Amino acid sequence: MAQIVTYARPSRLFRYRRIDKETIDRELKAIEESYIFCAGHTTLNDPMEGGHRLSTMLSKGRSSQAVKVKVEQAVGSMGIASFSEIKNHETMWAHYANNFKGICISYKTMSLISGLASDIDIVKMNYSEDPPVLLRNSETPEERAKLSLSYKTLRWSQEREWRVFSINQGKQRYRNISTVSAVYIGARVENEERKTIIRRIRAIKIPVYKMRIDSYQLKFSNVV
């Protein structure tokens, strides 16, 4: 049987994070302690997350209502962490990194894949005008939930998103702290918070870069 294989994996995946007085310690601890926090889908900013349709055959089956309930339960319990293929996207710095007051964390993709638990999936998002269709087959509720959460409308395609899926929400640890290859600091991060980020990230020997706005371009320079 043929298989679907993804060879075009980005060498780095980027995670935009909000930084303020309430979140800075939490976000830096995640880097220091080598984990990613997988949240529930209701914390994501797209209210259409998890949307799907039942195929005609599935919807007409006697178990269709039970299938629907189980998939909704699996979607509700699924842990999600979002990443992007790009670090210099202005809209994402605005939306996900606190209006350029946050950070962007760079992860080595293959190190992340090998360092997370074997029951965690890393998937590339699909963008479509139509929600995914759940078929009458042998897929589990968890597999159908992952399918539902792997689609967004075409309007989100600029994010070039990848996702980590875990069966449970919470901290998902990876093996090697060097999986994080760099931390990028937004142009509007407050001075005291910038100092804290630089001090703590350099203490674990991860390169730190600060952002500079150059006309319509985002540029980064190493903090030495």
What does this structure look like?
With 224 residues, this protein is α/β, with parallel strands linked by helices. It has one domain (12-222). 28% of the residues lie in helices and 28% in strands. It has seven helices and 14 strands. The strands form five sheets. It has a five-stranded mixed β-sheet with strand order 1-5-12-13-14, sandwiched between helices. The model has no long low-confidence stretch (mean pLDDT 92).
Strand content: 25-35%
Number of domains: 1
Structural class call reads alpha/beta
Q: How many strand units? A: 14
Helix content: 25-40%
| Total helical elements | 7
Characteristic terms for this protein:
single chain, 224 residues, alpha/beta, three-stranded antiparallel sheet, 7 helices
Set down the secondary structure blueprint.
Blueprint: E1 12-17, H1 24-32, E2 35-38, E3 53-54, H2 56-60, H3 64-77, E4 79-84, H4 90-96, E5 103-108, H5 109-115, E6 121-124, E7 126-127, E8 133-134, H6 141-148, E9 151-152, E10 161-166, E11 170-173, E12 180-185, H7 191-203, E13 208-214, E14 217-222
Parallel strand pairs: 3-8, 7-9, 12-13
Antiparallel strand pairs: 1-5, 2-11, 4-10, 5-12, 6-10, 13-14
Helix pairs in contact: 1-7, 3-6
Short description:
The chain has 224 residues and is an alpha/beta fold. It is built from seven helices and 14 strands.
